Amino acid sequence: MHPHLAFALCTWFGLGKLKPAPGSWGSLGALPFAWGLQILGGPWLLLLAAVVISLLAFWAIDAFLRKWPGEDPGEVVIDEVAGQWLTLAFVPPDWQLYLIGFVVFRLLDVTKPWPASWADRELPGAGGVLVDDLFAGLYGLLTMLLLLQFWG
């Protein structure tokens, strides 16, 4: 993958360069895309997009780390995009639910409940950058599905 394309994807088109909290900016930047995908094709399209962006993220992060080494560079936020989309996969496009989904994912991404903490510590390279966010996204998805059972 071309380094400039890897940089654009990894920083989610520059959002990862914003301070403070670039991960939050990346998650926030994922929301309009999630909304659009939900409108266009429903939850299964967003889930498919989460899988596709996760695969693309693995290769983009690997290329990024070869050109700009680091353990988990803060500007790399495509992993937050993948996790955020996973969290929202079965959440209908509603601004309140998306706000809750954003907060839920960010809390899980920051606190890293096991096995996210294990993946963050033990997996090398692109896997270590990406997989903890996918676990946070999966936990977020389960949390949101539970919440939707009670949402009026």
Q: State the shape.
A: globular
| Main beta-sheet annotation | none
State the domain count. Answer: 1
Strand/helix succession: HHHHHH
Secondary-structure class: mainly alpha
Radius of gyration: 14 Å
- The total of helices stands at 6
Low-pLDDT segments: none
Classify the helix fraction into a percent range.
Answer: over 70%
Question: What can be said about this structure in brief?
Answer:
It contains 6 helices and no strands. It has 152 residues and is mostly helical. The longest helix has 46 residues, at 22-67.
Provide an overview of this structure.
The protein is mainly alpha-helical. 76% of the residues lie in helices and 0% in strands. The protein has one domain. The protein has six helices and no strands. Helix 2 runs antiparallel to helix 6 and helix 3 (78-88) packs parallel to helix 6.
What keywords describe this structure?
152 residues, mainly alpha, globular
Topology:
Blueprint: H1 3-10, H2 22-67, H3 78-88, H4 95-111, H5 116-122, H6 125-150
